[in-house]
Amino acid sequence: MLYVDTRFLRVDWDEDLRCVCTEWKAFYAEGEEYRSALDKVLELLETKRSKKLLGDGRRMKVISKVDQDWVESVWMPRSAQVGLRYSALLLPTSAVTQMSLNQIMKKYKLPDASSAEVLNAYFDSVDKARQWLASQPT
Q1: Between 3.10.180.10, 3.90.470.20, 3.30.750.24, 3.30.1490.20, what CATH number should domain 2-132 receive?
Q2: For burial by CB atoms within 10 Å, which of 39, 53, 106, 126 has the most?
């Protein structure tokens, strides 16, 4: 089910996996445009009470430093609050974009006493990512 379709990001709901799916398009976005689209991901996670995210970032563009900081300080804690626990990611093909994404992901921790990490797994195909998510608890 299509939830949001912007010029740079598509957000869908997969009922079979009970998962929010994002597909990054080959367009750059930053600031409010970038943040409001990512807020829609959180909105759908919360509405559907989903613990799972499938992120196809193969065509993702570089994330600005300001937006990286926002993802780390605002979006990640909020994603944990709405229940995200399993994230299957297809990495960007761009090495520069991979570096900015890696900077963010290595800091991704849930805000609880144990600092347990959100379980992030990286894949080279959508099928493998879907299989892994299907094996995680709902």
Answers
A1: 3.30.750.24
A2: 53
